[in-house]
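Colleagues,

For the teaching module next term, I've prepared a clean inverse folding example: a structure given as C-alpha coordinates, and then the sequence designed for it. I'd like students to try predicting residues themselves before seeing the answer, so please don't circulate the second half yet.
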Protein backbone atom coordinates (compact mmCIF):
# COMPACT_ATOMS: atom_id res chain seq x y z
CA UNK A 1 0.00 0.00 0.00
CA UNK A 2 1.22 3.48 -0.87
CA UNK A 3 1.94 5.67 2.15
CA UNK A 4 0.92 9.27 1.54
CA UNK A 5 2.66 11.77 3.80
CA UNK A 6 2.97 15.54 4.11
CA UNK A 7 5.63 17.71 5.65
CA UNK A 8 4.02 20.91 6.84
CA UNK A 9 4.37 23.90 9.11
CA UNK A 10 2.73 27.28 8.72
CA UNK A 11 6.05 28.88 9.61
CA UNK A 12 8.67 29.22 6.89
CA UNK A 13 12.36 28.51 7.28
CA UNK A 14 11.95 25.37 9.36
CA UNK A 15 13.54 22.93 6.90
CA UNK A 16 10.31 21.64 5.38
CA UNK A 17 11.49 21.48 1.77
CA UNK A 18 14.95 20.27 2.82
CA UNK A 19 13.24 17.45 4.70
CA UNK A 20 11.02 16.43 1.78
CA UNK A 21 14.03 16.41 -0.54
CA UNK A 22 16.29 14.39 1.73
CA UNK A 23 13.71 12.01 3.20
CA UNK A 24 12.57 11.31 -0.36
CA UNK A 25 16.16 10.71 -1.45
CA UNK A 26 16.85 8.49 1.57
CA UNK A 27 13.75 6.40 0.90
CA UNK A 28 14.78 5.99 -2.73
CA UNK A 29 18.29 4.91 -1.76
CA UNK A 30 16.73 2.36 0.61
CA UNK A 31 14.91 0.83 -2.36
CA UNK A 32 11.53 2.55 -2.01
CA UNK A 33 9.76 4.00 -5.04
CA UNK A 34 8.94 7.61 -4.17
CA UNK A 35 6.92 10.38 -5.78
CA UNK A 36 7.45 13.87 -4.39
CA UNK A 37 4.77 16.46 -5.18
CA UNK A 38 5.79 20.09 -4.90
CA UNK A 39 2.75 22.07 -3.72
CA UNK A 40 4.62 25.22 -2.74
CA UNK A 41 4.25 28.05 -5.30
CA UNK A 42 7.76 29.17 -4.36
CA UNK A 43 8.91 25.96 -6.08
CA UNK A 44 11.96 25.48 -3.86
CA UNK A 45 11.80 21.70 -4.03
CA UNK A 46 11.61 21.87 -7.82
CA UNK A 47 14.50 24.33 -7.96
CA UNK A 48 16.56 22.04 -5.73
CA UNK A 49 16.28 19.19 -8.21
CA UNK A 50 15.83 20.54 -11.74
CA UNK A 51 18.43 22.59 -13.64
CA UNK A 52 15.81 24.37 -15.76
CA UNK A 53 12.27 25.63 -15.02
CA UNK A 54 9.80 22.92 -16.04
CA UNK A 55 7.23 23.46 -18.77
CA UNK A 56 4.67 21.24 -17.08
CA UNK A 57 3.84 21.28 -13.38
CA UNK A 58 1.24 20.24 -10.83
CA UNK A 59 -0.85 23.20 -12.03
CA UNK A 60 -0.86 22.24 -15.72
CA UNK A 61 -1.78 18.71 -14.69
CA UNK A 62 -4.72 19.91 -12.60
CA UNK A 63 -5.87 22.13 -15.47
CA UNK A 64 -5.59 19.08 -17.77
CA UNK A 65 -3.18 20.92 -20.06
CA UNK A 66 -0.76 17.98 -20.05
CA UNK A 67 -0.59 14.29 -19.20
CA UNK A 68 1.19 12.66 -16.27
CA UNK A 69 4.02 11.45 -18.47
CA UNK A 70 4.69 15.02 -19.57
CA UNK A 71 4.91 16.41 -16.04
CA UNK A 72 6.49 13.74 -13.87
CA UNK A 73 10.28 13.96 -13.78
CA UNK A 74 12.51 11.03 -12.88
CA UNK A 75 15.21 12.80 -10.86
CA UNK A 76 17.26 9.78 -9.73
CA UNK A 77 16.69 6.06 -9.41
CA UNK A 78 13.39 5.40 -7.57
CA UNK A 79 12.74 9.14 -7.07
CA UNK A 80 10.07 10.98 -9.07
CA UNK A 81 8.96 14.60 -8.89
CA UNK A 82 5.88 16.54 -9.93
CA UNK A 83 7.24 20.09 -10.15
CA UNK A 84 5.68 23.40 -9.16
CA UNK A 85 6.21 27.06 -9.97
CA UNK A 86 4.77 30.44 -9.05
CA UNK A 87 1.72 29.96 -11.29
CA UNK A 88 0.43 27.58 -8.62
CA UNK A 89 -0.27 30.66 -6.50
CA UNK A 90 -3.45 30.88 -8.63
CA UNK A 91 -4.68 27.55 -7.24
CA UNK A 92 -7.05 29.13 -4.74
CA UNK A 93 -8.49 31.59 -7.25
CA UNK A 94 -8.91 28.80 -9.80
CA UNK A 95 -10.55 26.21 -7.55
CA UNK A 96 -11.94 27.94 -4.44
CA UNK A 97 -15.43 28.23 -5.94
CA UNK A 98 -15.55 24.48 -6.57
CA UNK A 99 -17.91 22.81 -4.09
CA UNK A 100 -15.36 20.02 -3.70
CA UNK A 101 -12.32 22.31 -3.59
CA UNK A 102 -10.77 20.54 -0.59
CA UNK A 103 -10.91 17.17 -2.39
CA UNK A 104 -8.99 18.16 -5.54
CA UNK A 105 -5.82 16.48 -4.33
CA UNK A 106 -7.75 13.36 -3.29
CA UNK A 107 -8.93 12.96 -6.89
CA UNK A 108 -5.41 13.73 -8.10
CA UNK A 109 -3.93 10.96 -5.95
CA UNK A 110 -6.50 8.51 -7.27
CA UNK A 111 -5.48 9.43 -10.81
CA UNK A 112 -1.81 8.88 -9.92
CA UNK A 113 -2.60 5.43 -8.53
CA UNK A 114 -4.44 4.52 -11.73
CA UNK A 115 -1.49 5.66 -13.83
CA UNK A 116 1.05 3.92 -11.58
CA UNK A 117 -0.79 0.89 -10.18
CA UNK A 118 1.07 -0.71 -7.28
CA UNK A 119 4.28 1.08 -8.28
CA UNK A 120 4.71 3.71 -5.56
CA UNK A 121 5.71 3.04 -1.97
CA UNK A 122 5.54 6.68 -0.87
CA UNK A 123 3.92 9.89 -2.07
CA UNK A 124 5.31 12.94 -0.28
CA UNK A 125 3.75 16.41 -0.33
CA UNK A 126 5.82 19.53 0.16
CA UNK A 127 3.32 22.16 1.32
CA UNK A 128 3.54 25.96 1.39
CA UNK A 129 4.21 27.78 4.69
CA UNK A 130 0.53 28.64 5.12
CA UNK A 131 -2.60 26.78 6.20
CA UNK A 132 -4.68 27.74 3.15
CA UNK A 133 -6.52 25.71 0.52
CA UNK A 134 -3.36 24.11 -0.88
CA UNK A 135 -2.26 22.74 2.49
CA UNK A 136 -5.82 21.74 3.31
CA UNK A 137 -5.92 19.67 0.12
CA UNK A 138 -2.71 17.91 1.10
CA UNK A 139 -4.06 17.11 4.57
CA UNK A 140 -7.33 15.76 3.21
CA UNK A 141 -5.44 13.54 0.76
CA UNK A 142 -2.68 12.18 2.99
CA UNK A 143 -2.48 9.77 5.92
CA UNK A 144 0.56 10.98 7.81
CA UNK A 145 1.85 14.40 8.80
CA UNK A 146 5.40 15.24 9.86
CA UNK A 147 6.18 18.65 11.33
CA UNK A 148 9.71 20.09 11.12
CA UNK A 149 10.44 22.88 13.61
CA UNK A 150 13.11 25.25 14.77
CA UNK A 151 14.00 25.08 18.44
CA UNK A 152 12.62 28.55 19.15
CA UNK A 153 9.83 29.35 21.55
CA UNK A 154 7.62 31.13 19.02
CA UNK A 155 7.71 28.08 16.74
CA UNK A 156 5.22 26.52 19.16
CA UNK A 157 2.58 28.86 17.75
CA UNK A 158 3.03 27.39 14.30
CA UNK A 159 3.05 23.87 15.71
CA UNK A 160 -0.21 24.38 17.60
CA UNK A 161 -1.86 25.86 14.51
CA UNK A 162 -0.91 22.78 12.47
CA UNK A 163 -2.17 20.44 15.19
CA UNK A 164 -5.51 22.28 15.32
CA UNK A 165 -6.00 22.10 11.56
CA UNK A 166 -5.05 18.42 11.47
CA UNK A 167 -7.60 17.68 14.20
CA UNK A 168 -10.34 19.52 12.30
CA UNK A 169 -9.54 17.70 9.06
CA UNK A 170 -9.41 14.39 10.91
CA UNK A 171 -12.81 15.02 12.50
CA UNK A 172 -14.60 16.32 9.42
CA UNK A 173 -13.14 14.75 6.30
CA UNK A 174 -10.17 12.42 6.82
CA UNK A 175 -10.39 10.15 9.87
CA UNK A 176 -7.19 8.34 8.82
CA UNK A 177 -5.08 11.48 9.17
CA UNK A 178 -2.54 11.53 11.99
CA UNK A 179 0.42 13.59 13.08
CA UNK A 180 3.02 10.83 13.11
CA UNK A 181 6.01 12.85 14.20
CA UNK A 182 7.68 16.18 14.81
CA UNK A 183 11.38 16.92 14.73
CA UNK A 184 13.87 19.76 14.95
CA UNK A 185 15.89 21.05 12.04
CA UNK A 186 19.08 23.08 12.61
CA UNK A 187 19.25 21.30 15.94
CA UNK A 188 21.80 22.24 18.59
CA UNK A 189 21.39 20.11 21.72
CA UNK A 190 23.74 22.34 23.70
CA UNK A 191 21.32 25.25 23.70
CA UNK A 192 19.12 25.63 26.75
CA UNK A 193 16.05 26.54 24.70
CA UNK A 194 16.47 23.38 22.63
CA UNK A 195 16.58 21.15 25.70
CA UNK A 196 13.62 23.04 27.14
CA UNK A 197 11.61 22.58 23.92
CA UNK A 198 12.34 18.85 23.87
CA UNK A 199 11.03 18.50 27.43
CA UNK A 200 7.96 20.59 26.64
CA UNK A 201 7.05 18.67 23.49
CA UNK A 202 7.54 15.29 25.14
CA UNK A 203 5.18 16.46 27.87
CA UNK A 204 2.55 18.07 25.61
CA UNK A 205 2.65 15.54 22.77
CA UNK A 206 3.71 12.14 24.14
CA UNK A 207 5.30 9.78 21.62
CA UNK A 208 5.19 12.36 18.82
CA UNK A 209 8.72 13.77 19.02
CA UNK A 210 11.05 11.81 16.76
CA UNK A 211 14.26 10.41 18.25
CA UNK A 212 16.25 11.91 15.38
CA UNK A 213 16.76 15.64 14.92
CA UNK A 214 18.63 17.34 12.09
CA UNK A 215 21.82 18.99 13.21
CA UNK A 216 23.13 22.27 11.81
CA UNK A 217 25.11 21.16 8.77
CA UNK A 218 26.82 23.04 5.93
CA UNK A 219 26.18 20.23 3.44
CA UNK A 220 22.42 20.66 3.87
CA UNK A 221 22.74 24.34 3.00
CA UNK A 222 25.01 23.83 0.01
CA UNK A 223 23.52 20.76 -1.69
CA UNK A 224 20.30 22.33 -3.12
CA UNK A 225 22.28 24.91 -5.11
CA UNK A 226 23.94 22.00 -6.93
CA UNK A 227 20.55 20.30 -7.55
CA UNK A 228 21.48 17.41 -5.26
CA UNK A 229 20.27 15.74 -2.12
CA UNK A 230 22.71 15.71 0.77
CA UNK A 231 23.35 12.01 0.04
CA UNK A 232 24.69 12.81 -3.41
CA UNK A 233 26.53 15.95 -2.31
CA UNK A 234 28.21 14.68 0.86
CA UNK A 235 27.12 11.19 1.93
CA UNK A 236 29.48 11.24 4.94
CA UNK A 237 28.06 14.47 6.38
CA UNK A 238 26.06 14.78 9.58
CA UNK A 239 23.14 15.91 7.46
CA UNK A 240 23.17 12.65 5.49
CA UNK A 241 23.42 10.58 8.67
CA UNK A 242 20.59 12.48 10.38
CA UNK A 243 18.21 12.25 7.44
CA UNK A 244 19.01 8.57 6.98
CA UNK A 245 18.20 7.94 10.64
CA UNK A 246 15.04 10.04 10.48
CA UNK A 247 13.92 8.13 7.39
CA UNK A 248 14.48 4.81 9.16
CA UNK A 249 12.16 6.04 11.91
CA UNK A 250 9.51 7.04 9.36
CA UNK A 251 9.71 3.65 7.65
CA UNK A 252 9.10 1.88 10.97
CA UNK A 253 6.11 4.01 12.01
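(Answer key — instructors only)
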Amino acid sequence: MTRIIAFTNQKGGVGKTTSVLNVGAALAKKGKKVLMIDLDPQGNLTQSLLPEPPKNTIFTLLLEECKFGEAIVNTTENLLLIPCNNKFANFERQFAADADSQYIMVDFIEAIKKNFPNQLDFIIFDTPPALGLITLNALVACQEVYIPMNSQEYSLTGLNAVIEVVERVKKRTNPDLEVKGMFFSRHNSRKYITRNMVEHLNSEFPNKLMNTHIRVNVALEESPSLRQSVFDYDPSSNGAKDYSDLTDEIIKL
